[in-house]
């Protein structure tokens, strides 16, 4: 599974970081980013939850 955050859509709510801090972090500007585009298998369920819960639908799966 691969993910990325659309930085033009993200508004920095931080929901993804709350749900899966192993995959997401916040930039210095307060917006989300994927730490690595390749999601480790053990974090796929939490990543999918973050995708579903993103208020701006800014997280994309490749």
TrEMBL record:
Iron as UniProt keyword: yes
4Fe-4S ferredoxin-type domain location: 1-29
Leader sequence segment: none
Cofactor(s) needed by this chain: [3Fe-4S] cluster
UniProt entry keywords in alphabetical sequence: 3Fe-4S, Electron transport, Iron, Iron-sulfur, Metal-binding, Transport
Gene Ontology terms, MF aspect: 3 iron, 4 sulfur cluster binding; electron transfer activity; iron ion binding
A Pfam family reported for this protein in Swiss-Prot or TrEMBL: Fer4_15
Key word Acyltransferase present: no
Lineage top rank: taxon: Bacteria
Function: Ferredoxins are iron-sulfur proteins that transfer electrons in a wide variety of metabolic reactions.
Annotated protein name in UniProt: Ferredoxin
Annotated organism of origin: Mycobacterium asiaticum
